[in-house]
Amino acid sequence: MTIRAVGFDLDYTLAVPTSDRTTILNEATAATGAPELSRSAYLDAHSQNLTSETRTPIFEHLLAERGSDADPEALASAYRERIADALVPIDGARDFLTTLRETYAVGLLTNGPRVAQRDKLETLGWTDAFDAALVTGELPAGKPDSAAFEALLEALGTAPEETVYVGDDVDADIGGAAAAGLVPVQVIFEGGPEPDPKAAAHVPREELTTRLPTLLAEL
């Protein structure tokens, strides 16, 4: 089956933070008078709120656990602003996406609250960079749920076996795409997850823009 479409994850795949997320979280809590929160606790709460409008419910939960009266909405806003400010595209990303769209339908499927993820796309200047850009905060389910990938397929108008999905997360991206019948390609980088055998291919992130077009033609 010929590949007709390619979908991408956003964070740590097409765009990376210039500051680590723990530092950004600590800066946001300090700015809003909230107690220090661990990155692992945040990720656990985030995984339960993939279809939320904002990050406010995440921080409501975390602050309540710590008995804090800090404003979760203010903390969510501070964290969102710092994340967006620290996010940069991988080298050559915009031209890469433009060129891909000459041959393939190109989509985005990113986990996270609607406001946060749309803000990232606005900051990156990518509101028109994809044929379809889906945020799980606007969907009934997030990755790795097959329903999220089915929404991407519907938006792109392709069958699973015709669609490559590129991401870094072993469970949400690679496992989820494989379970939904898409062709997973794992982005590899220092400090990231180990190569997963469920992926059809593994590509170093710094080589993604140069190697993926050839790989798509070969699959």
Automatic annotation (TrEMBL):
Entry annotated with the keyword Hydrolase: yes
Top-level EC class: hydrolase
EC number: 3.1.3.-
Cofactor: Mg(2+)
Keywords linked to the UniProt accession: Hydrolase, Magnesium, Metal-binding
Superkingdom of origin organism: Archaea
Gene Ontology terms: biological process: small molecule metabolic process
Pfam families in UniProt: Hydrolase
NCBIfam families the UniProt entry points to: HAD-SF-IA-v1 (TIGR01549), HAD-SF-IA-v3 (TIGR01509)
Stated family: Belongs to the HAD-like hydrolase superfamily.
Name the record gives this protein: HAD family hydrolase
